[in-house]
Every structure is written in C-alpha cells, then in structure tokens.
Amino acid sequence: MMRSLVLILAASTALAGCSLAPKYARTELPVPPSLPVGDAYLRQSEATLPAITYRDVFKDPRLQQIIVQALANNRDLRVAAANIASTRAQYRIQRADLLPQVDASGRYSYSGGGNGTRNTVTSGGTGGNTGTGTGTGTGTGGTGTGTGGTGTGTGGVGTGTGSTGSVVSSSSSNSSFSVDLGTTAFELDLFGRIRSLTSAALDRYFATEAAARATRLTLVGDIADAWLTYASDQSLLKIAQDTVTSSQRSVTLTNARLRGGVAPRTDLRQAQQILFTAQSDLAQQRTALAQDVNALQLLVGAPVDASLLPTSIEQALPTVATLPAGLDSSILLRRPDVVESEYQLRATNAEIGAARAELFPKISLTGILGFASTSLTSLFSGGAFNYSVAPSVSYPIFRAGAGIAGVAYSKAQRDAALATYEKTIQTAFQETADALARQGTIADQLKANQNFSAAAQDTYRLTDARYRGGIDTFLSSLDAQRSLYTAQRNLVATQLVGASNRVTLYRVLGGDSTLEATADGPRPVSANGTPRAETN
What is the CA radius of gyration of the chain? Predict the structure, then answer.
C-alpha cells in the first residue's frame, strides 16, 4: 500500500507541469516603430534610453531633499506599499494550494466502569425419627454453612443438611493513545488549474509593483512641477513689485506735473492704471505663493522648509536636465504604466488556462498515517503504525454550459486587457511625441521672448527718458511700460513651460532600472541586473 502511495504522488508530480493556458506572446506595438522626427523635433540619438533616477534630472540639492522627504512621507506611496503587501500575500495564499496541507493531531482517551452483585443462599435443616420412643430432631441453617441436630430417643437418629451462599462482583477500564499526520482533499494539479491561478496571482503582484513605481514617478514629477511653479511665481512677484515701484514714481511725477499745470489729468489717471494693475497682480502672486507651498506640503506629506524653496525661475531652470530620447519607440515598454498593463494582460491570459482546466476531472487525495496504542510506552512500536490513502475523482456531469461560459468569459477578459494594454502604449506614444515636439521648439520660443523682453526694457528706458526730457508724450512712456510688463511676464511663463516640459520628459521617458524588457514581456531584475525570482 505504501508503494502505491509513492507511485501516485510521483505520477501527480510528473503531470503537474501540464498547463492549458495559451502561450503568452507580446503583441506588435500598435504605434510607429520610431518616435516622430521632423521640423518640430530635435535630432534624436540612436542609443537606447539608459535607466535613470530623479537625481540625474533634478540637480538642485534643495529639490532633491524635498523629494527624499516626500518619498518617506507621501500618503499615496503608503497606499501603494500597502497594495503591494496585499497582492503579495494573495499570491502566497494561492501558491500554497500547489502543496498539500498537512495536519497533525494527537489524542488520548480513557474509559472505565464496574458493577457488583451479592447472592445469599439460606439453607434449612430437617429432622426425623424412626423406631420407637420419642425424640425431636432439629436443624439449623445459616448463611454459607448448615448444621444438623442430633435426635434423642429410642430407635431414631435425626439428620440435617445446609447449603453455602456466595457474593459475585465485576469491573472494567482501558486507555488509548494515538498520533496522526494527514492531508484532506489535496487536489492533484494534473491539468494546471492551480498553477495557472498561481501565475495569474504572481502577474497581478508584479502589476501592483509597477503601479507603485508609476505612483512614485508621478509624485516626483508633481513635486518638481510644484517647485518650479513656486519659482515662477516668485519671479512674477518680483516683476509686480518692480512695476509697482516704477509706477509709483510715474504717478508721483505726473501728479507733480499736473499741479504745475504741465500735464493733463489723463496722464495721472493712465499712470495710476499701471500702478493699480501691478498692485492687483502683486496681491495675486502672494496668494499664489502661499497656495504653492500648500500644494508642496500636500505632496510631501509634511511641512516644507522655506530654505529649500527657489527664489526665481531663472535660478531653477538650469538645474533641470533634459533627457536624451532615442528613436526606438520600444523604450515606452519600460514605462511603469505600460508594464502594469502588460502584467494585467499576462494575468488574464493565465486565467484562461484555469478556466479550461475546470472542464476536466478533479483528482483529490486524502491520506493519513500515524500510531495508535493502548500504552504510551509502546506508541511508536512497529505494531502501532497504521496508514490509509483515499484518492477520489470528481467530474461535473451537467452544469448547463457554465464551464464553457467560464472559458469564454476569461477569453473576453483577456481581449479587454489586450485592448487596454495597446491603448496604454498609444497614450504613452502620444505623450512622448507631444513632449518631444515641445522640447524641439521651446528653445527658439524662449530665445525670442528673451529678445523681446530685452527690447521692451530698452524701449521703456528710452521713452521714459524722452518723456522726462519733454520730448515725447506720456502716452509713449505708458505704452512702453505696459509692453515691458507683459514681456517680462511672458518670459517667465515660457521659462516655466520649458522647465515643466523637462519634467514631462522625465515622466514619459522614465526608464525603470528594476525591469528588463524582453520579447516575452517585462522581467523583474535585482539591483545588479540579474533576473529576480519570486520565492518568498
């Protein structure tokens, strides 16, 4: 019997590698094989995009310190970490079904009882006489013994007889000891149902890890954007302050000229318009700066030290590096959101195998072995060993098409996951192409705005001098001042767009150093680049 058990387990192990899941093959990219090129795009390198970290892009130590603080305190990252722990536990629960659950039990029992009966027999004596004469015969009976009396008289002898009584009693008790090891209804995974479900659980675990990396990538980008927005608002605040100062001087001058009868009241009112506009913008920028700090603190999850904030966009812009984008669109396959979508697709593909296996019989095994004895000292002796094995087969005769429908459902889920995966790649391609288009033209736009701002500055200086010298009207100086104010604000806005576009490139081209993109799909790797196996 033991040999039969070994043969059954060996056969089940040999057949357990069978899987009915379709072989996964990565679909062709639903986008052009290369990223866009043309007038709006810079000449790209043929080299593949290296794996990068945020420190390679954001060079300012203050911004790096804020990012480190956020990675430790941000609540979205904590949620993502909890989700990873949850799906990892679900994977380990599912993987445990590949092995039998072994239960151990020990038992001791005692039983006992007894009853007693008492029987008493009373004996009697008789006497008689023969012959002549007179005499009396007597007999006395007692418990257990009997005696006869002697008769006296002529010609006769008396006799007596007695009988013996008895007490009967009985009792019984017994003890038993047993130790058992056993497994109940362990499914032999001959058709790969459990293995397919385990593969699906592992892929969803990896998908959750990728989602956490996407959350981390987005968080770092959002912090950089908020930091740069604060820098641009600081620059706009300074422009508003400088404009208020210069406008106040213009109002004072025109007011003096009005009192001296040299300038009309319209000059004063026009000068006041510039002043009031700048004062309004000044108040707005103070509000914006406070809101920028609030946004940063929400992203960081803790208060942000004011010394870590930038003083101007001109100072912050050079500290953000530009990523070198290659021509091959396959670099998009390393994006965390694309990786997450592909792992979800792989999970649904594995679930098809589980659904197909449901159409075949299930073979289960129940077994027990142990020792049983009436004495503890002889519990583990050879004669106390016993075992039993009970394999069983179950197959649903009628399910009204539920099994076939289960396979159809899993295939439909796979098709939906495939469409989602392809849409994710297309979205990634569009985002990358947009960012590259902006990168290819922003330098020209920035240079033009810088030249315009410099020209407006010079125009205002010249017209103001001509107005003060009585050569030009105040209207010329006023127009020049308005043009300068607009040019300065537009330059700051363009600088912010350029810096934010570099952040966007970090997001859309953010390679993942913990993944290796292969033809069969993404593979998690360790820190040294070797494949990482999920064994815990």
Answer: 49
Task: Please choose, from the candidates 412, 332, 299, 340, the residue with its C-alpha nearest in 3D space to the C-alpha of residue 87.
Answer: 340
The β-bridge partners of 139 are 148
Strands 515-518 and 146-148: unpaired
Report the distance separating Cα 484 and Cα 475, nearest Å: 14
SS (H, E, C) 124-171: CCCCCCCCCCCCCCCEEECECCEEECCCCCCCCCCCCCCCCCEEEEEE
Could you please report the per-residue DSSP string of 108-128? EEEEEEEEEEEE--B------
Token pair, residue 305, equals 């030290």
CB-CB contact of 284 with 237 (8 Å): no
Pairing of strands 385-394, 362-373: antiparallel
With cut-offs at 50, 70 and 90, classify the pLDDT of residue 165: very low
Which residues neighbour 444 within 8 Å (Cβ) at sequence distance 6 or greater?
A: none
Query: How are strands ordered across the β-sheet holding 385-394?
Result: 103-119, 166-188, 362-373, 385-394
Query: Which range, of 180-184, 270-274, 421-425, 481-485, averages the lowest pLDDT?
Result: 180-184
